[in-house]
């Protein structure tokens, strides 16, 4: 690339000749889109290098995939029994909690109904002192619901 001075008297490096390069080297050096591989290789050498690069890359990927799969299988084989046992234990614990909650609620409701029924029977039979107990229970709705 030449400088834009009218008589070429500019002192910039662009006007200095390239030392040690012949004309074809100067032309390819200026060509930004030039391919570096074209200079030293024939088409056969280039395709052989491409094939070697492709096969090397594919071999690396195949080896990597196989190593990952074998490690994954080994990890699964080691951890699955532990996970299954843990799942069984958690299931048993949850079932006990749910049963306890249901039984406790059912037993409480049954005891409450038995108590109410017993008080009603005692009132009908005229057991002494039961009316005062019924009045106390009736005045406190949080203890027992209304029994009359």
TrEMBL record:
Assigned keywords, A-Z: Cytoplasm, Nucleus
Positions of the Essential protein Yae1 N-terminal domain: 59-96
Gene Ontology cellular component annotations, sorted alphabetically: cytoplasm; nucleus
Family, similarity comment: Belongs to the YAE1 family.
Region described as Disordered: 1-27
InterPro entries to which the protein is assigned, alphabetical: Essential_protein_Yae1_N, Yae1-like
Organismal lineage: Eukaryota, Fungi, Dikarya, Basidiomycota, Agaricomycotina
Organism of provenance: Cerrena zonata
PANTHER family linked: PROTEIN YAE1 HOMOLOG
Coiled-coil intervals: none
Record's protein name: Protein YAE1
Annotated localization: Cytoplasm; Nucleus
